[in-house]
Design brief:
The protein contains 12 helices and 12 strands. By secondary structure, it is α/β, with parallel strands linked by helices. The two termini are about 15 Å apart. The chain is globular and about 55 Å long. The strands form 3 sheets. Strands 1, 4, 5, 6, 9, 10, 11 and 12 form an 8-stranded parallel beta sheet that branches. About 45% of the residues lie in helices and about 15% in strands. The chain has a single domain, classed as Glycoside hydrolase/deacetylase (TIM Barrel, Alpha-Beta Barrel), CATH 3.20.20.370.
Length: about 325
């Protein structure tokens, strides 16, 4: 494990051992006005040995869900957003999100969500619904993870590479992938992963799971033309509404990236809100189209999740949230 990662984890363990984490969680839970913490996950897996990029083992995910159920009011995105703007309730409310729409959400996460009665929202990349796919960010992780690094280090290196690649065109990404795979000596065959199909989506919906849009093809919207962005947004919204018979008003920016133009187009497409990628807790001053979130899929211990929620809440209290005027980048 890298020195930086090891140091941060030891600090988190120390905070937990000293009772600081618990104190921060208790403080977050008793604030005078409602706040909304949005926990973001991507993939779920059977075990740590079976871990994929941005994947959380099933047992760790269950520990996360039990923790938030025991300590906070767990809400849907729609309810949580309505509550913070209307001033309904007090303290921290928590919503659970999954981005992309991998089939492993249904296999490993969905049973846990049902067990704890958690109304999570899954943001679907609609062009891939019901299809096998190999995403370029998974190819990067596949190449990097063949080295001698730990899974955590591989994910950190992959994050760094992906932050550069996601700003490039499809042809530039493909060329870069060839160089990366050659550099790391990638020879491990990658099988396409299954994405959620409409049958699974409809079953989950009947159990209280909500669905929103993550665009059609998961490209960085900021590098597309207005016409292309509208197609990505309106096309995905239409697909969800047609197949589920609902108004698809929930949106998550691919990669968490947006600018003022993309925010305007999301509003014009008919979405009610959009979740961005920067860390933070939302209160009544939050912009509906740049909602903050807490990346939770990489947190291997419940105490780490508690620390991240508590520290983010403290920063919100002290008005230390960092604001971006244009692009906002997801931090994993």
């Amino acid at each position: 494990m890298g020195i930086g990662i090891m140091f941060k984890d030891r600090i988190k363990d120390l905070m937990h051992g000293l009772g600081i984490t618990g104190a921060l969680v208790r403080i977050a839970g008793v604030s005078k006005y409602p706040r909304l913490a949005i926990l973001v996950y991507h993939r779920a897996c059977e075990s740590i040995e079976d871990s994929a990029y941005l994947g959380i083992p099933r047992d760790v995910f269950e520990q996360h869900m039990k923790f938030i159920s025991d300590n906070f009011k767990v809400v849907s995105m729609e309810e949580g957003i309505r509550n913070i703007y209307a001033g309904n309730g007090k303290g921290m409310q928590v919503a659970v999100n999954f981005d992309d729409g991998y089939m492993d959400n249904y296999i490993y996460a969905y049973p846990v969500l049902k067990k704890y009665h958690i109304p999570a929202t899954v943001y679907l990349t609609t062009d891939y619904i019901g299809k096998p796919a190999i995403f370029w960010w998974d190819r990067v992780f596949n190449a990097v993870s063949l080295g001698r690094m730990s899974g955590i280090e591989s994910a950190a290196v992959t994050d760094s590479i992906n932050k550069e690649l996601r700003l490039k065109t499809d042809s530039e990404i493909e060329a870069a992938l060839g160089n990366i795979e050659k550099s790391y000596g990638a020879i491990k065959k990658m099988d396409p992963v299954s994405m959620l199909g409409w049958n699974e989506i409809k079953e989950m919906k009947k159990s209280g799971i909500n669905f929103g849009s993550h665009a059609k093809t998961h490209r960085d919207l900021c590098i597309l033309s207005d016409k292309e962005v509208i197609e990505e947004l309106a096309g995905s919204k239409k697909d969800i509404e047609k197949n589920l018979g609902i108004e698809a008003g929930e949106f998550s920016y691919p990669f968490g990236i947006f600018d003022n133009r993309i925010k305007r187009l999301a509003k014009e497409a008919g979405f009610k809100y959009a979740r961005a990628g920067f860390r933070g807790i939302n209160n009544k001053k939050a912009d509906r189209f740049s909602l903050a979130a807490i990346p939770a899929g990489s947190l291997a211990k419940t105490s780490f999740l508690a620390a991240r929620i508590g520290i983010s809440s403290l920063k919100t209290t002290l008005h230390l949230r960092h604001c971006y005027k244009c692009k906002v980048v997801r931090v994993s």
